[in-house]
Specification:
Blueprint lengths: L2 H7 L2 H26 L3 H5 L6 H25 L10 H6 L4 H27 L1 H10 L8 H21 L2 H21 L2 H4 L4
Helix pairs in contact: 2-6, 4-8, 4-9, 6-7, 6-9, 7-8, 8-9
């Protein structure tokens, strides 16, 4: 059974539970790995820097730009190129703004802590970016989605190379998920961008 079929059979509550459970696992993995891969936990914690200028210039603005580019691509390319089996629609369509905020916030923290904070700092930029793209398994048969997530992954990874600041990548990731989640919630992008 395909991932999309399994998700379609889940209730909204079950889907939210599974999503949060998965993110909790990623969060726990990042904490556990940080104890083993860093000499001291304080070494890992140096990647959490609250620098408002960096967060704005390398987190918020790039996040918004990624969303604008995605929306432009959705407008000009056929709808079928962006069909992930209805998974994103199922996740976001019937959620309120607070739930979308929570989902985007939890996903951004868990995934960035693991992929940038642990994998990228230990194994490098390329390895982390490729693994991040590959966990989005539902995109593997959709070239446009796969290329898009690869580019975004490398871009966010590069932002971490520039800043060595996890708050930057968390904010960029959050902005992308939150804004696209709102687009899906307000009106699914397939309906908003009528292209065949």
């Amino acid at each position: 059974m395909k991932q999309a079929d399994i998700i379609k059979q889940m209730s909204s509550k079950e889907l939210m539970y599974q999503l949060m459970f998965t993110q909790l696992i990623l969060f726990i993995i990042s904490i556990v790995l940080s104890f083993f891969l860093f000499d001291q936990l304080s070494d890992w914690l140096t990647y959490f820097k609250f620098d408002g200028t960096e967060i704005l210039l390398y987190g918020l603005i790039p996040g918004v730009l990624i969303v604008i580019i995605d929306l432009v691509l959705m407008f000009f390319l056929p709808k079928r190129f962006f069909d992930d089996g209805g998974i994103n629609e199922k996740v976001f369509k019937n959620r309120n703004i607070k739930e979308i905020f929570l989902i985007a916030f939890v996903v951004a923290i868990a995934e960035e802590m693991l992929f940038r904070g642990v994998i990228q700092t230990t194994f490098g930029y390329v390895v982390a970016s490729i693994i991040f793209a590959l966990i989005h398994i539902r995109y593997l048969t959709k070239p446009v989605l796969l290329i898009s997530v690869l580019i975004i992954s490398f871009y966010i990874g590069y932002l971490f190379v520039l800043t060595e600041n996890l708050f930057v990548t968390i904010i960029a990731h959050f902005i992308v998920d939150f804004l696209l989640g709102i687009v899906i919630q307000k009106k699914t992008w397939g309906d908003s961008f009528e292209r065949t």
